[in-house]
Amino acid sequence: MTTLTPLYQLAAEQKSAEVTDWSARISWVIGLIVLVAFIYWLMRQGWKWRGSLQSGLSELATTPDGFADGEKILTLTGRYHASTTAGQWLDRIVAHGLGTRSRVELTLTEQGLDVVRPGATDFFVPAADLREARTDKALAGKVLPEGGLLIITWALGDQLIDSGFRSDHSAEHPAWVDAVNQLASSTEGTAR
Q1: Do 115 and 125 contact (CB within 8 A), yes or no?
Q2: How far apart are CA 176 and CA 8, in angstroms?
Q3: What stretches pass through the bilayer (predicted)?
Q4: How many alpha carbons lie under 13 Å from residue 18 in its C-beta half-sphere?
Q5: Whole-angstrom distance, CA of residue 184 vs CA of residue 181
């Protein structure tokens, strides 16, 4: 007959708590921090490299004198998401600060489109450089419901660019599409 140790005797035995190996834990935490910092550094280098590849882009136009005196066709407040090579919704342009997401205030007049971005580079698109506008759902990795983005195609030198905006009130997008397309077609007709 085997004797079993009563449970109350097993419970009464003193056991030492497991000791935490602090040096191993600290090493893992430091290693993880170094890995995250290295990945961030690689991403930043990739961003700089992309900017140097696009350094051949023409300089952005600035808002002309007397622009504020002109009659405003439309205004919009919202978000600027990105600019890409026209027709290439994932080919983000980072040169001249065009890759920086920010708040935006758009003003459309007969002279062109004024893009004011607090905290980022402002730019101006002359009416002669506007090509078209449309609504879409994706640009440079930003995907929204159908019609959630206002895409304006314009020329910067000899490069066609798609810039994506999202109004605080997306119901404004169709009016912007109509107005920009009308302005682009009227300036195209006078340029011929």
Answers
A1: yes
A2: 80
A3: 26-43
A4: 3
A5: 5
Report the DSSP beta bridge partners of residue 138.
143
Return the bridge partners of 143, or none. Answer: 138
Cα–Cα distance, 119 to 72 (Å, whole number)? 24
Contact 95, 156 (CB under 8 A): no
pLDDT tens digits for the chain (192 residues)?
Answer: 456 666 666 666 666 666 678 888 899 999 999 999 999 999 999 888 888 888 888 888 888 887 777 789 999 999 999 999 998 888 889 888 898 899 999 999 999 999 999 989 999 999 999 999 999 998 887 888 888 999 999 999 889 999 999 999 989 999 999 999 999 998 765 654
How would you classify residue 39: left for phi > 0, otherwise alpha for psi between -120 and 50, otherwise beta? alpha
